[in-house]
Design a protein that fits this description.
With about 325 residues, the protein is α/β, with parallel strands linked by helices. The protein folds into two domains: about 180 residues, 3-Layer(aba) Sandwich (Rossmann fold); about 90 residues, Magnesium chelatase subunit I, C-Terminal domain (Helicase, Ruva Protein, domain 3). Helix content is about 45%, strand content about 15%. The strands form four sheets. It has a five-stranded parallel sheet. Strands 3-4 form a two-stranded antiparallel ribbon. Strands 6-7 form a two-stranded antiparallel sheet. The longest helix has 18 residues.
Length: about 325
């Protein structure tokens, strides 16, 4: 496959603005959350959405896929879902006298994995391996996934009966964790009027294509990150590892994810270099789900630890 050309940072900024505006025409998503989702798309990361049913998680994934004119697939997780239902399987073709690979929904560009914690650990592992490796290996044959490729997985934060919570090592595969929250009264009233007129997502037109998104991926990867910025990220990680309120601080992979996200945010702001401000803007979304609380800690301590680290670690 030919290498996609890169874009100028100003073109990436224009692309991000178009995407965010187009998605928010159909889904009432907070601006900060929408920016974090676009950061994940540009940085080739994945998104974990923890929120209540009915706040627009599915609509967000559909709107994003329509906005980039990409293939969309939805996986509704249940306890009896098998890895083959997600990644695909080999089916015997009697006429050809051979096995033929039937790809699963994970081969789409934008994949919504609804209620991922209802899938069994075996199925979760199969999906998250695809997210990490970006290919599927079946019977010694490797099948590359589509590009771009982004998984938006959802979890219900208040319902745990019959679920299999993601272990920390698997949570670590998600670049950002976000929550949509309930819209304001004015936004909700506007949403009711919009939906009375039809499906707003189905009426969206693409504002870019997968080729331009791939070019934006290359631009973000080429954004300059200075030695001082890298050491700043490491200092934040080390501060979380030494805090007694945490049993497990941020991993080296967390630092890699934070750096990639910061570079993508810089590109979306039209810059060719990342700044400490980019790191600070994304630290909560990238790091908090990677912090494991000590037994005696309060649920709010992870956010407090990270906030203190950002306040106390000097930006070099």
């Amino acid at each position: 496959m030919a290498t996609a050309p890169s874009l100028e940072p100003s073109a990436v900024a224009a692309l991000g603005a178009r995407l965010e505006a187009n998605v928010r025409r159909a889904v009432k998503v907070p601006e900060q959350v929408m920016r974090q989702v676009v950061v994940a798309l540009v940085a080739e990361g994945h998104v974990l959405i923890e929120d209540y049913p009915g706040v627009g998680k599915t609509a967000l994934a559909r709107a994003l896929s329509r906005s980039i004119d990409a293939e969309y697939a939805r996986v509704q997780c249940t306890a009896d879902l098998l890895p083959g239902d997600v990644v695909g399987t080999n089916v015997y073709d009697q006429r050809e006298n051979r096995f033929e690979f039937r790809p699963g929904p994970v081969f789409a560009n934008v994949v919504l994995v609804d209620e991922i914690n209802r899938a069994s650990p075996k199925t979760q592992s199969g999906l998250l391996e695809c997210m990490q490796e970006r290919h599927v290996t079946l019977d010694v044959t490797t099948h590359e996934l589509a590009r771009p490729f982004i998984v938006l997985a959802t979890q219900n934060p208040v319902e745990y009966e019959g679920t299999f919570p993601l272990p920390e090592a698997q949570l670590d595969r998600f670049m950002v964790r976000v929550a949509l929250g309930y819209p304001s009264a004015d936004e909700e009233a506007s949403m009711l009027a919009d939906h009375a007129a039809g499906d707003g997502v189905a009426e969206l037109s693409p504002v870019t294509d997968v080729g331009e998104v791939l070019a934006a991926n290359r631009t973000a990867a080429a954004v300059h990150a200075s030695e001082a910025l890298r050491r700043y990220i490491v200092a934040i990680l080390e501060r979380t590892r030494s805090d007694p309120r945490l049993e497990l601080g941020a991993s080296p992979r967390a630092g890699l994810m934070l750096l990639k996200a910061a570079k993508a945010l810089a590109a979306l702001d039209g810059r060719d270099h990342a700044l400490p401000d980019d790191v600070q803007a994304l630290a909560e979304a990238v790091l908090t789900h990677r912090l494991v609380l000590a037994p005696q800690a309060r649920p709010s301590d992870s956010a407090e630890v990270l906030g203190e680290a950002l306040d106390q670690v000097p930006a070099l």
